Protein backbone atom coordinates (compact mmCIF):
# COMPACT_ATOMS: atom_id res chain seq x y z
CA UNK A 1 0.00 0.00 0.00
CA UNK A 2 2.74 2.47 0.95
CA UNK A 3 4.71 1.62 -2.18
CA UNK A 4 1.65 2.40 -4.31
CA UNK A 5 1.08 5.63 -2.40
CA UNK A 6 4.64 6.81 -2.92
CA UNK A 7 4.26 5.98 -6.58
CA UNK A 8 1.26 8.34 -6.60
CA UNK A 9 3.38 11.06 -5.00
CA UNK A 10 6.00 10.52 -7.68
CA UNK A 11 3.37 10.92 -10.36
CA UNK A 12 2.24 14.17 -8.74
CA UNK A 13 5.82 15.47 -8.87
CA UNK A 14 6.02 14.46 -12.52
CA UNK A 15 2.85 16.46 -13.23
CA UNK A 16 4.37 19.54 -11.62
CA UNK A 17 7.64 19.10 -13.52
CA UNK A 18 5.66 18.82 -16.76
CA UNK A 19 3.88 22.07 -15.89
CA UNK A 20 7.29 23.72 -15.43
CA UNK A 21 8.26 22.61 -18.92
CA UNK A 22 5.00 23.99 -20.31
CA UNK A 23 5.34 27.43 -18.72
CA UNK A 24 9.01 27.57 -19.70
CA UNK A 25 8.08 26.88 -23.32
CA UNK A 26 5.31 29.47 -23.12
CA UNK A 27 7.64 32.22 -21.90
CA UNK A 28 10.30 31.28 -24.44
CA UNK A 29 7.79 31.62 -27.29
CA UNK A 30 6.23 34.76 -25.81
CA UNK A 31 9.63 36.43 -25.57
CA UNK A 32 10.42 35.55 -29.17
CA UNK A 33 7.03 36.93 -30.22
CA UNK A 34 7.84 40.14 -28.37
CA UNK A 35 11.34 40.57 -29.78
CA UNK A 36 10.58 39.39 -33.32
CA UNK A 37 7.11 40.96 -33.65
CA UNK A 38 5.90 37.47 -34.50
CA UNK A 39 2.12 37.17 -34.42
CA UNK A 40 2.14 33.42 -35.06
CA UNK A 41 4.22 32.73 -31.96
CA UNK A 42 2.04 35.03 -29.88
CA UNK A 43 -1.08 33.18 -30.99
CA UNK A 44 0.59 29.86 -30.18
CA UNK A 45 1.14 30.98 -26.57
CA UNK A 46 -2.37 32.37 -26.28
CA UNK A 47 -4.05 29.25 -27.59
CA UNK A 48 -1.85 27.01 -25.44
CA UNK A 49 -2.71 28.67 -22.14
CA UNK A 50 -5.79 26.50 -21.68
CA UNK A 51 -3.56 23.41 -21.52
CA UNK A 52 -1.65 24.97 -18.63
CA UNK A 53 -4.90 25.72 -16.82
CA UNK A 54 -6.01 22.13 -17.36
CA UNK A 55 -2.69 20.85 -16.04
CA UNK A 56 -3.15 22.85 -12.84
CA UNK A 57 -6.63 21.43 -12.39
CA UNK A 58 -5.31 17.90 -12.89
CA UNK A 59 -2.52 18.45 -10.34
CA UNK A 60 -4.90 19.84 -7.76
CA UNK A 61 -7.45 17.08 -8.31
CA UNK A 62 -4.71 14.48 -7.86
CA UNK A 63 -3.42 16.18 -4.71
CA UNK A 64 -6.85 16.51 -3.14
CA UNK A 65 -7.64 12.88 -3.85
CA UNK A 66 -4.45 11.89 -2.02
CA UNK A 67 -5.47 14.05 0.93
CA UNK A 68 -8.94 12.55 1.03
CA UNK A 69 -8.05 8.91 0.51
CA UNK A 70 -4.68 8.51 2.21
CA UNK A 71 -4.64 11.01 5.13
CA UNK A 72 -0.90 11.67 4.68
CA UNK A 73 1.33 12.83 7.54
CA UNK A 74 4.82 14.32 7.93
CA UNK A 75 6.81 14.47 4.68
CA UNK A 76 3.98 13.00 2.60
CA UNK A 77 1.59 15.70 3.80
CA UNK A 78 4.15 18.39 3.04
CA UNK A 79 4.54 16.98 -0.46
CA UNK A 80 0.81 17.12 -1.18
CA UNK A 81 0.32 20.61 0.27
CA UNK A 82 3.40 21.93 -1.53
CA UNK A 83 2.09 20.50 -4.80
CA UNK A 84 -1.18 22.40 -4.42
CA UNK A 85 0.64 25.69 -3.85
CA UNK A 86 3.17 24.99 -6.60
CA UNK A 87 0.47 24.25 -9.16
CA UNK A 88 -1.07 27.64 -8.44
CA UNK A 89 2.28 29.42 -8.91
CA UNK A 90 2.99 27.54 -12.12
CA UNK A 91 -0.42 28.39 -13.54
CA UNK A 92 0.28 32.03 -12.72
CA UNK A 93 3.60 31.79 -14.59
CA UNK A 94 1.62 30.61 -17.60
CA UNK A 95 -0.68 33.60 -17.24
CA UNK A 96 2.28 35.97 -17.18
CA UNK A 97 3.67 34.45 -20.38
CA UNK A 98 0.18 34.86 -21.81
CA UNK A 99 0.21 38.58 -20.92
CA UNK A 100 3.53 39.01 -22.76
CA UNK A 101 2.12 37.27 -25.83
CA UNK A 102 -1.04 39.38 -25.75
CA UNK A 103 1.06 42.54 -25.64
CA UNK A 104 2.91 41.38 -28.75
CA UNK A 105 -0.39 40.65 -30.48
CA UNK A 106 -1.99 43.92 -29.43
CA UNK A 107 0.75 46.06 -31.00
CA UNK A 108 1.26 43.91 -34.10
CA UNK A 109 2.47 44.68 -36.75
CA UNK A 110 4.32 47.36 -34.78
CA UNK A 111 6.97 46.34 -32.26
CA UNK A 112 6.13 46.70 -28.59
CA UNK A 113 9.67 47.41 -27.43
CA UNK A 114 11.75 50.47 -28.29
CA UNK A 115 15.31 49.70 -29.32
CA UNK A 116 16.74 50.97 -26.03
CA UNK A 117 15.16 48.19 -23.97
CA UNK A 118 15.18 45.23 -26.35
CA UNK A 119 18.47 43.88 -25.03
CA UNK A 120 17.19 44.03 -21.45
CA UNK A 121 14.06 42.08 -22.35
CA UNK A 122 16.05 39.50 -24.27
CA UNK A 123 18.08 38.89 -21.13
CA UNK A 124 14.98 38.89 -18.91
CA UNK A 125 13.42 36.29 -21.18
CA UNK A 126 16.54 34.16 -21.01
CA UNK A 127 16.60 34.29 -17.23
CA UNK A 128 12.87 33.56 -16.96
CA UNK A 129 13.13 30.44 -19.11
CA UNK A 130 16.26 29.34 -17.25
CA UNK A 131 14.41 29.66 -13.94
CA UNK A 132 11.53 27.55 -15.23
CA UNK A 133 13.95 24.86 -16.43
CA UNK A 134 15.85 25.02 -13.15
CA UNK A 135 12.67 24.66 -11.15
CA UNK A 136 11.68 21.64 -13.23
CA UNK A 137 15.03 20.05 -12.39
CA UNK A 138 14.63 20.86 -8.69
CA UNK A 139 11.20 19.23 -8.58
CA UNK A 140 12.58 16.06 -10.10
CA UNK A 141 15.76 15.92 -8.00
CA UNK A 142 14.59 17.55 -4.74
CA UNK A 143 18.03 19.16 -4.62
CA UNK A 144 17.91 21.83 -1.90
CA UNK A 145 21.21 23.42 -2.95
CA UNK A 146 19.99 23.78 -6.54
CA UNK A 147 16.74 25.29 -5.28
CA UNK A 148 18.62 27.88 -3.26
CA UNK A 149 20.88 28.70 -6.22
CA UNK A 150 17.86 29.93 -8.19
CA UNK A 151 17.81 33.00 -5.95
CA UNK A 152 20.88 34.31 -7.79
CA UNK A 153 19.06 34.30 -11.12
CA UNK A 154 16.09 35.97 -9.47
CA UNK A 155 18.40 38.72 -8.22
CA UNK A 156 19.61 39.25 -11.79
CA UNK A 157 16.01 39.60 -12.91
CA UNK A 158 15.33 42.14 -10.17
CA UNK A 159 18.37 44.18 -11.25
CA UNK A 160 17.19 44.22 -14.86
CA UNK A 161 13.70 45.18 -13.77
CA UNK A 162 15.01 48.12 -11.75
CA UNK A 163 17.19 49.14 -14.67
CA UNK A 164 14.13 49.56 -16.88
CA UNK A 165 12.85 52.33 -14.63
CA UNK A 166 16.10 54.24 -15.04
CA UNK A 167 15.64 54.10 -18.82
CA UNK A 168 11.98 55.12 -19.03
CA UNK A 169 12.30 57.82 -16.35
CA UNK A 170 15.24 59.49 -18.09
CA UNK A 171 14.60 63.02 -19.30
CA UNK A 172 15.65 62.08 -22.80
CA UNK A 173 13.16 59.16 -23.12
CA UNK A 174 11.89 59.78 -26.68
CA UNK A 175 9.17 57.14 -27.04
CA UNK A 176 6.21 58.66 -25.22
CA UNK A 177 3.87 57.57 -22.46
CA UNK A 178 2.31 54.53 -24.21
CA UNK A 179 5.69 52.89 -24.75
CA UNK A 180 6.71 53.65 -21.18
CA UNK A 181 3.53 51.97 -19.91
CA UNK A 182 4.17 48.91 -22.10
CA UNK A 183 7.73 48.60 -20.84
CA UNK A 184 6.63 49.01 -17.22
CA UNK A 185 3.95 46.33 -17.46
CA UNK A 186 6.11 43.89 -19.39
CA UNK A 187 8.97 44.30 -16.96
CA UNK A 188 6.59 43.52 -14.12
CA UNK A 189 5.38 40.38 -15.89
CA UNK A 190 8.91 39.02 -16.15
CA UNK A 191 9.80 39.98 -12.60
CA UNK A 192 6.72 38.25 -11.19
CA UNK A 193 7.33 35.18 -13.36
CA UNK A 194 10.76 34.82 -11.77
CA UNK A 195 9.32 35.27 -8.28
CA UNK A 196 6.81 32.48 -8.84
CA UNK A 197 9.52 30.14 -10.11
CA UNK A 198 11.57 30.75 -6.98
CA UNK A 199 8.45 30.24 -4.86
CA UNK A 200 7.95 26.79 -6.38
CA UNK A 201 11.58 25.90 -5.66
CA UNK A 202 11.12 27.01 -2.06
CA UNK A 203 8.18 24.62 -1.78
CA UNK A 204 10.58 21.83 -2.68
CA UNK A 205 12.88 22.96 0.13
CA UNK A 206 9.86 22.84 2.44
CA UNK A 207 9.11 19.28 1.38
CA UNK A 208 12.68 18.12 2.00
CA UNK A 209 13.48 20.04 5.21
CA UNK A 210 10.10 20.80 6.75
CA UNK A 211 10.90 24.53 6.81
CA UNK A 212 10.40 27.32 4.31
CA UNK A 213 13.62 29.20 3.46
CA UNK A 214 13.76 32.70 4.90
CA UNK A 215 16.16 35.47 5.79
CA UNK A 216 16.31 34.36 9.42
CA UNK A 217 16.72 30.64 8.80
CA UNK A 218 19.54 29.80 6.48
CA UNK A 219 18.85 26.20 5.61
CA UNK A 220 21.52 23.65 4.94
CA UNK A 221 21.00 20.96 2.29
TrEMBL record:
Plays a role in the regulation of phosphate uptake. It comes from the Bacteria. Homodimer. Belongs to the PhoU family. Keywords: Cytoplasm, Phosphate transport, Transport. GO terms for biological process: intracellular phosphate ion homeostasis; negative regulation of phosphate metabolic process; phosphate ion transport. Pfam families: PhoU (PF01895). NCBIfam families: phoU_full. The keyword Zinc does not apply. The lineage of its organism: Bacteria, Bacillati, Actinomycetota, Actinomycetes, Pseudonocardiales. Its main location: cytoplasm. One of its GO terms (cellular component) is cytoplasm. It is found in: Cytoplasm. The keyword Protein biosynthesis does not apply. Residues 18-103, 122-204 form the PhoU domain. This is Phosphate-specific transport system accessory protein PhoU. InterPro entries: PhoU, PhoU-like_sf, PhoU_dom.
Amino acid sequence: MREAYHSELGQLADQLAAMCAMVGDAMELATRALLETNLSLAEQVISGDEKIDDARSACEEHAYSLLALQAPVATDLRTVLAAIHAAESLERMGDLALHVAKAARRRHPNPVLPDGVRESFAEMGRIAVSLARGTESVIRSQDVAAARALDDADDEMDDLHRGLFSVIMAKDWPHGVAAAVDVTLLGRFYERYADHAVSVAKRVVFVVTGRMPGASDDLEP
